Amino acid sequence: MSSKTQDKRITLAWTGASGAPYGLRLLECLLAADYQVYLLISSAARVVLATEHGLKLSAGPDAAKKTLIEHLDCDASKLEVCGKEDWFSPVASGSAAPKQMVVCPCSAGTLASVAHGMSDNLLERAADVVLKERGQLLLVVRETPFSTLHLENMLKLSKMGVTIMPAAPGFYHQPESIDDLVDFMAARILDHLGVEQGLVPRWGYDHRQ
Ligand SMILES: Cc1cc2nc3c(=O)[nH]c(=O)nc-3n(C[C@H](O)[C@H](O)[C@H](O)COP(=O)(O)O)c2cc1C
What we know:
Layout: H1 3-7, E1 9-14, H2 20-32, E2 36-41, H3 43-53, H4 61-72, E3 79-82, E4 100-106, H5 108-115, H6 122-132, E5 136-141, H7 148-159, E6 163-164, H8 178-193
Parallel strand pairs: 1-2, 1-4, 2-3, 4-5, 5-6
The structure holds flavin mononucleotide.
């Protein structure tokens, strides 16, 4: 595998926090940017995706992939949906896992599991691998208000170099739709990952009054 190909691999995890549209948009943008995406979906994420977006995914990875490819109308070859206990997936080992991982949206439950290295399913294991390999881990946490426990878990991970990005879109780009708010978050996340994007005008360039 060439280093260029290696660079364009990423792990994306969806958990059961509110904000499924963020995760879906991120997947769409990463695939459009020609990234190989390893997608991990928790059981609760499936419930939230159906509730918030009306998209029902089967528990099986292959069927879920088929539904997502049809929904996004994208290239199937770049997407790998991983099973919850697929311990032979590349994301389960530091010898093969992508160096970048985003959990978007990230529930308080998954935040706690990651902060404590639980590794009880492939999603938690993948995050633990990125931590131990000193890769880039982004958690797009969604809860309100935050308890002291949530804040402590976020601080703990932040001190380890994890980027905590609350799902908190700004309004200074004068959004006209929910899609605009979703794109605001997707743009900030893609910027942190170093993925080129033109979803939202940049501050200071297009917003001078
Ligand atoms: C529609 C819906 C919205 C939810 N929103 C949140 C949320 O914003 N933040 C959160 O931490 N949990 C939220 N939950 C609860 C989580 O889904 C639940 O704690 C679950 O166990 C998380 O598991 P996971 O981290 O494995 O996905 C929500 C659940 C549902 C069904």
